[in-house]
Structures are given as C-alpha cells and as structure tokens.
Design goal:
By secondary structure, the protein is an all-alpha fold. It has helices at 5-27, 29-34, 36-64, 82-92, 97-104, 108-116, 124-133, 157-162, 170-178. It is extended.
C-alpha cells in the first residue's frame, strides 16, 4: 500500500523499471527459444509485480484525487484491515500525518509510527481518536461469533500477526455465505 507522496514517486520509478525489464525480456529471442519455461516464468513474475504496482498506484491516485466534498466508501472485509482503512481515509481527506495528529490530539511521531506499523502498537483509545478525527462513520457492521469453534486457549501475538485470515468452521462459513 502506498501511504505517502514519497512512496508514490518511488513506486512510479519501479513501475518504469518493471516495464523496461519486461520489454527487454520480450526482445530476448535466444532465451525465449532455448529455455522457454524459464523465460515465461521470469516474464510472468515481472508482469505480476507490474500489475500489483499498477493497482497500488491507481488506488493512491483514486484516494488522493477524490472530491473532498463527496464521502468515500471504504469497505472493511476483516478487522485486520482496519489500519489500511484509517490510512486510506487520511489520504482521501488530504490530511498529512501532522494534520491528523493535531486533529486527533496525538503527536505526528505517533501517527507516523502507527501507520508504519499498521497501528499494531496503537491503543484502542488512540485508534478511536483517529476514527473521530477522520469523522469515520460505520454504516453497517455485522459480527459473526462462531460459537461452535470458539477457542478456549489464549491466542498469542505471533498467531495473530502470522494469520491474515482466520480459518472458519464449515458451519460458520455456511452462515457467512447465507448473509
């Protein structure tokens, strides 16, 4: 995720490098003939990185060029992605980290650290201050509590950080699909 203008500029530079690398690979007829599988794998790898970078640049452009008089809808599919919502909301509001810090009653260093670490070390209260400063309003929130698979042992920090998505039981998955 591109979080600021510097990252945006660096991403633009990498985009150009990937495009040039793909063009160079396309012209390498010897590699294409002699080791087609390796050539194809290299080409596809570069193309994958290029497309991911293009998507991130497009998202940054969309957020930073959004009309500030029109609300923007940011969708949260998993609570683990709340930090990205906060960062995207700040960017769409065209606020610097310093401006957000002033509005939230925090320091610029705190906001910078929170964003650099995806709000990992932010207190619940500080997250609330940021949400309030950005005037984020939750329109519809649904939480599923799968009682059939409720864990009865403590969750470690490592487990939380290592899993992007929590596994759902089959019954819970069916309930989610029905909603």
């Amino acid at each position: 995720m591109i979080k600021n203008e510097l990252e945006y500029q660096v991403s633009q530079e990498w985009l150009e490098k990937f495009e040039k690398s793909i063009a160079a690979i396309e012209k390498d007829e010897d590699s294409k003939k002699n080791d087609h599988e390796r050539w194809k794998m290299n080409r596809e790898t570069l193309q994958c990185h290029l497309e991911k970078l293009q998507a991130e640049i497009a998202e940054y452009d969309r957020l930073t060029s959004h009309d500030s008089h029109t609300p923007i809808v940011l969708t949260l599919d998993d609570i683990d992605y709340l930090p990205q919502i906060l960062i995207r909301a700040r960017m769409a509001a065209k606020l610097s980290q310093k401006e957000l810090a002033d509005l939230a009653g925090l320091t610029e260093e705190q906001i910078k650290r929170y964003e650099d670490n995806d709000y990992e070390d932010a207190s619940f209260l500080d997250v609330r201050f940021v949400i309030d400063a950005l005037d984020i309003q939750i329109q519809k929130g649904e939480f599923l509590v799968p009682l059939d698979t409720l864990r009865r042992t403590p969750v470690t920090k490592e487990e939380l950080l290592s899993s992007n998505h929590r596994p759902h039981s089959q019954q819970s998955q069916r309930m989610i699909e029905q909603v």
